[in-house]
Amino acid sequence: MIIEKGYAKINLGLNVVRKREDSFHDLDMIMTSINLYDELYIEDNASGNIIIECDQLLNLKPEDNLVYKAIDLVRNLYHINKGVKVRIIKRIPEQAGLGGGSADAAAVLRGVNQLWELNLPLSELAKLGFQIGSDVPFCIYNRTARVRGRGEIIEFIEDMPFTYLLLVFPDFRSSTREVFQNYIVDHSQDGRIDQLQTNIEGGSLPDIAKACFNDLEKAVNNSEIAAIKSDIIQSGALGALMSGSGSTVYGICHNSEKNALQVLQRFNSLSSGRNHPRRQAGIYTVRSMRKATKVAISDIPVRKNKQDDLRILFSIETKAYAMLPLAYQAILNNYITILTPLSLWDNISIQKLNHPVAILTISDGSPDRELSSALNEIVQHLGFGLRVSIKRNVPKDLGLLDFNNYLCAIITGLKSFGCHIEDVFTLFPAQVKAYRDYRTVMFDSKSGVCDILNKAVFGHALLVDLNLKNYHNPRYTKQAGATDFRFQGIITGISEKNFYKMATNSFNGLEKFDGRQIDEYRGRGFLDKIKTAVLNYGAANCYLTINGRALIILARYEKNIIRIKNLLRDRFNLKNSLVTSLKTDVIHRTSVSKILKTVEDIATESFEDYTYDESSPFINDEEGFDDYQEEATYRKSKRRRVLSYEGSENDYEGILLLNSGGSIFKQYDFSDIAKYFKNFFDGKYINFNVDGKEVSVIFKTEHLPHILGIHLLDEGDPSYRGKAGFMKLLNGEISYRKLKSPGFIDEKIFRQIINKTQSSVLIFNDIFNNCLDSFYCFPRELIVGEDTKMVKFEFGITRMLSGSTFHKQHLLGIGRDETTNRYFFYTSFIWQVPAHIGKKDSYSIIIS
User: Is residue 293 part of a domain?
Assistant: First the structure.
């Protein structure tokens, strides 16, 4: 029987040089072995099979087991027909960055080399090991070495001095594949590996600890790593680092067992009672006979209670502005976001100290171990101390100020101390710089690309704490792709200086997951009720913050925000809210259509009164009304509280961006539609080329009642038609709430009016925004029957209700006045397209 030990390794330095064409990465590392090991008992097996006994590896397939692969490789290469049995006593945790699998593979290669008397040199075993795994060649030798390439180039250097290590094992594991997939090569640490080697050769443990680094820390999506590093440093260790791709974090202690045990005790004391995942920690040693250079050590932690010897050399005041997420989409383990600054901030005081210590205090007394760890790293880099005090003004639960935001503000402030802050930024992930100068930015965490956008358009925001108390959101992140059109809508709105286009496209991609859980916690429909209410009170949009614990409500006018704040306080008992505005000087620019033209002689035009029969043999009164079932339920409920319409008289511009008929009356009313039509369409015309014929179609306010179907309320009453009917709409005499009141009008007529309104508004919007790609145009004879009274009807422009349903379309009818030979829009309905009519029957229609 052969007994071998597979020793764990730690990375003292890890620099990712480049990504190769084969998807692997070239690395430049310094590694050393430690006295944490697996034991392997290797013996012949008469059955001729490979048998591996290890409780921790029972569920591992043979092809995924590096020990099995190593034995199988040697047997095939050297034509050995013997079996072997390997019993493994496992102590090195898997997926911990300690090379446990590689250490076992290296140990079994050494073991079968003896068992089968192959007499292969270690260099040959290292070549075999490289075929199994990148770390196996190093684990063959178990000596301090500089390792390059994928692990095949090994240069032995001066041994790491013997010392004690604190190893901390979090309760999560890290996938090497995922970490490397997340890492973006930025060359920010180039040159540090040479300095580390120099410090190792010098033998000073403090100097070695100061020079240790790991590029891959930026790619691990878990803030617990930074928190552990911070706690290790505060416990008195000389330095702390993640090993390999994680998740193990180690601290370098003084060359004293007593000191190491004190560090462990302090670390356990810091960890106890905190609300974080369970950790395991232990003391191990570096496998080395070399003694470290003697330095004076103290058993007192680095962070002393008495700081009488600290002197303030310089101080500055700065601010960390809250950043509003206009968009957030999580894709697998990455995300894309658009951020813009708010007129909210936390105050930050930064003091330069004469000794290299990092001190962080926050006004509410809450700890921030991740930020403390980052400050320690900055101090080590700069060589002088920092005392940072944060005064919180923005409620923490809103989630609008995070680690990256504070860190960026602190680093930017260091410029006042004469620091080269670009070098400091390279110590941290790319997203930290996304907050620099508080611009509107689009950041992709996968690529690390931060695109600077134009300034956002000024508007007001209400931030509402949902009072979820002990609720924990699910944090689902593995979504199936980004909502590209929403991102593009926001960017277009910003570039066009259009608040409504920017605001209505804003979203949080996690909301569908969080919303479901919040409804279970607060009651079914909780969020929908709030959203319906705030939209009725003039909000442009309402969506969850990224942390899922608060609402972001956007509106162009402050008076709407104030009314919504009062509504949520009185009706939903949501008392913790904050009114603010976007930090920008860009003013909203009213929408202007690029294709509508003004009729110069509109004042002198006259249109004769028309008679009509609004019925159509192709209208399907039972279908086409978006969200009708929801509305029907709403109308039948006697207990449900009805929201009165409270929209701002200037907010009708948002109608231009609606692309769903069911959204109209959740936010607007007929008076808004009248104002929208009057301001954006009345007195305008559009030139169509219909099958080679030039047609100019005019928009007139007196035709709107007919288009919306308001005349159906009383076909014998002329006040529901023409100019009089339009004034009823404009003055609010006709409201959605009144129409849907039980018994006010016949259900069939109600549906017809709603269908007509939806059809006309959606087609008007497409015309205004020049979105005519999905339009069809059909002649009179295919749409209306011979017995129709709509004698002026010439042709209809149609738009499918959905992308896959050709035979059900929104229709906007175009008529012609024989006395003036003018074309005008004058009717609308849902057209149930007969089966014999297809796309081939549509006229060719373009804007001329």
Answer: no
